[in-house]
Amino acid sequence: MLKNGLNFLKSVSVFSSMIVLSKEQDTYKDKGARRNLVNELKAKGIVDSKVLEAIGTVPRHLFIHKDFRSHAYQDKAFPIGNGQTISQPYTVAFQTQVLHIEKGDSVLEIGTGSGYQAAVLAWLGARLVSIERQKDLYLKTSKLLANLGFEVECLLGDGSLGHYQQGPFDKIIVTAGAPRIPQALVDQLKPGGIMIIPVGDEKEQLMHSLIKKSNGELEVIPLHKFRFVPLIGEQAW
């Protein structure tokens, strides 16, 4: 294995979190669909006003294939290639809400995927490092996030090992189903920090919120069941 599994990571940095879109890229219809989605998420229990504002602002239709544009604001997951999916908006909103993002938080995301979750976190002011193992997705998504003006550092590597070079982190979010909680990620979480991770088999996982106490012990809070693609790596599947 490479040292820490990440010796040859490639990175891209973006220096502005301002979204600048033309009327063709983000139409009145798109904006109206986002408002409807926000109302749907409210009805499903998402109460954090900043998370709802992020969902109502970030153009999800730009993170999926153009053929799905008319369905982009349905609360559904869609394939994005490489055996991966863009999570349904409720899942993105739920994980984000439970993370309790504060502006300036250092956040590690495991599984960049489409970049939609990363965009929501960046919009909320997270100082985000996001790791993707699929090279094609890494290249496509890192370019998209940069073009949209989101401040995200995208890395290519084994997310189950985290990124020791920039840790420890205030928050860690895992967007793929793990068979167990990777110790490498626990080690990279600051005291008082929060990790959100789905744990289970390859068909269904139970979302867990982990709070690291000052003595290093973990408070593990089981939440709801979800379905994610598997987390692949040295400390995963």
Kindly describe this structure.
The protein has 237 residues and is of the alpha/beta class. It has a domain at 9-17 and 79-226: Rossmann fold (3-Layer(aba) Sandwich). The radius of gyration is 17 Å and the shape is globular. It has six helices and ten strands. It is 26% helix and 25% strand. It has an eight-stranded mixed beta sheet with strand order 1-6-5-4-7-8-9-10. The protein has a two-stranded antiparallel ribbon with strand order 2-3.
Features:
two-stranded antiparallel ribbon
Give average pLDDT, whole number. 92
Specify Rg, calculated over alpha carbons: 17 Å
> Total strand count, please?
10
Supply the helix-strand structural class: alpha/beta
> What is the count of DSSP helices, taking H or I runs of 4+ residues?
6
What level of helicity do the residues show? 25-40%
* Beta-strand share of residues: 25-35%
Q: For the record, give the distance between the C-alpha atoms at the N and C termini, rounded to a whole number.
A: 16 Å
> How would you sum up the major sheet?
8 strands, mixed
Q: Report the CATH topology name of the domain at 9-17 and 79-226.
A: Rossmann fold
What is the multimeric organization of the chains shown?
single chain
CATH-defined superfamily of the domain at 9-17 and 79-226: Vaccinia Virus protein VP39
Principal-axis shape: globular
Q: What is the N-to-C order of secondary-structure elements (H for helix, E for strand)? A: EHHEEHEHEHEEHEEE
